[in-house]
Amino acid sequence: MSRVVVRNADFESLRRTIDHLFEEFEVDLRGKSVLIKPNFGAAVGPEKSALTDARVVKAVLDACLEQTSDVVIGDNPGNLDTGAMHTIKMSGILELAGDFYCNISKGGEFVDIGSEIIPRVFLSRKVMDVDYVINIPKMKTHVLCGLSCCVKNLYGYVVGAQKARYHLESKSLKRLTQLWLDLYKYRTPDLNIVDAIVAMEGGGPTHGNPRRVGKIVAGTNGFEVDVVITTMMGWDPRAIKKLEMAWEQGLGEIDVEKIDVTGDFEVLPTFEKPPTFAAIDRAFNPYEEITRIRPKLDEEKCVLCRLCGDESCPAQAISFADFPVIDPKKCISCYCCVEFCPEGALYVEYDKEIFEIA
Ligand code: SF4
Ligand code: SF4
């Protein structure tokens, strides 16, 4: 059984909170190289609360620097390299800790991670090179997989646009989920610190609604941290297929009562689920059916930037006649376009017909 610590937190006392967590988990970084892995996945500003808050990343960086100078902050945003730097600028981390930011998208190699889904996965070399990985995801919902937190954040080990391609190459949502678990097993983070000061509810991972939770949640077992986060959202962790599969594969406990949870744990009142998961519970879990829901366009929000096109869509399902047009036959419902549209103009919604048929 691992320990998960939940602490009330705000930006003013953040550094103290992180210091206490380092003490509680006896973090010893002396003589070690460290990768701090936030979620800087999409090019949106801090007000959206879609990315790990740069102040949380900075507080973790400062705590690390007390012990070692060999620290970098790095993530692989989902779009191509030029877009990656734009995304990093939007995160605000360059102003706070620019010298420590490393564009880990630039050094990648194909690695056998022992996955049956993708034989050789294109990973940032930095992930393999460092002694210690600190995973700092955001507490947020996800229209494709319900929850984006510790396990899902490690998809950012994969370099840039490869992530979108693996949506296509993995051939099903269940197989893609297995790839996420294989990445977690390949390089399990040494420590996970979840930014839950302002979380995201509703239609995450990019265009949901910010929700002030006021917590930092930490643990060495990222899967069990995800179980605790899901329970805080008021959701049965078994309703999240990724967590159920992780539990079946022996990555930890899925019953929160069997996890040593200490501190300021609470179940939040009415945490809004993503629309695609509105009907999902433990008894009725039509996971793959979600991938029959095609994104829709809100023309009022679309600024015709075309960022949802080939750079985001692995299936080349989007063409443009001024506004983007999605070919439903080509679309695999990976929702990458939804995630990377900077305006929130593409969205998915609960489809009663699909779930009734299911
Ligand atoms: S849907 Fe979004 S990404 Fe696509 S053209 Fe419109 S604003 Fe740009
Ligand atoms: S149109 Fe959007 S949801 Fe469909 S395959 Fe392309 S990126 Fe994925």
Task: Describe this protein's structure.
- The protein has helices at 14-24, 54-65, 81-91, 93-97, 125-129, 150-153, 162-169, 173-186, 222-232, 241-248, 336-340, 352-357; strands at residues 3-8, 34-38, 71-73, 108-111, 121-124, 132-136, 138-142, 146-148, 191-201, 209-219, 260-263, 296-297, 318-321, 323-326, 346-347.
- It is of the alpha/beta class.
- The chain starts with a strand and ends with a helix.
- It has 2 domains: 3-277, LarA, N-terminal domain (Rossmann fold, 3-Layer(aba) Sandwich); 288-357, 2-Layer Sandwich (Alpha-Beta Plaits).
- The protein is 28% helix and 20% strand.
- The model has no long low-confidence stretch (mean pLDDT 92).
- The structure holds iron/sulfur cluster (2 copies).
- One iron/sulfur cluster (SF4) binds at residues 297, 302-308, 324, 341, 343, 345-346.
Task: Offer a quick outline of the entry.
The chain is of the alpha/beta class. The chain has 12 helices and 15 strands. The longest helix is centred in the middle third of the chain and has 14 residues, at 173-186.
